[in-house]
């Protein structure tokens, strides 16, 4: 896979899957702007500075998320690839899941996905090019005790992605 000249926005690049996606995209020639709540690693640990820029961002903050997308778009000219990878995975049985935790899980795992797609999709459609990858989970399809809020949020991502693909 070659991504020479492509400009990507990847969430959840502070570790795990998101960091691996950012590294692979950079190695394939893309410039990646990575977003994570905790930017505790040096960007150089992912890729050279000319390929990777790290942004600390709480994806629950809709206003700041929109501002950052605007800043990145102005800097890059466009976002060619959006990878919605960030997520939180709290273990709580349904009776232990208070409204604050439910709101956090839905805001990060689904709300941010919806907002970021809504922000980048119109320009992609106008250009007739672009790709959006929404990372869900096998828990979009099956339940797991202690993860009811997470399952619901990833199920929402899956249903939204299907609808967005048809749009």
Describe the structure.
The chain has 4 helices and 5 strands. It is of the alpha/beta class and 167 residues long. Helix 2 (62-76) runs parallel beside helix 3 and helix 3 (99-127) packs parallel to helix 4.
Query: What does the main sheet amount to?
Result: 5 strands, parallel
Helix content: 40-55%
Output the number of helix runs.
Answer: 4
Unreliably modeled segments: none
Beta-strand residue fraction = 5-15%
Secondary-structure-based class equals: alpha/beta
Structure characteristics:
five-stranded parallel beta sheet; 167 residues; alpha/beta; single chain; 4 helices; globular; 45% helix
Which secondary structure elements does this structure contain, and how are they paired or packed?
Elements: E1 7-11, H1 16-27, E2 31-36, E3 52-56, H2 62-76, E4 81-84, H3 99-127, E5 131-134, H4 148-166
Helix pairs in contact: 2-3, 3-4
Task: Summarize, please.
By secondary structure, this protein is an alpha/beta fold. It has helices at residues 16-27, 62-76, 99-127, 148-166, and strands spanning 7-11, 31-36, 52-56, 81-84, 131-134.
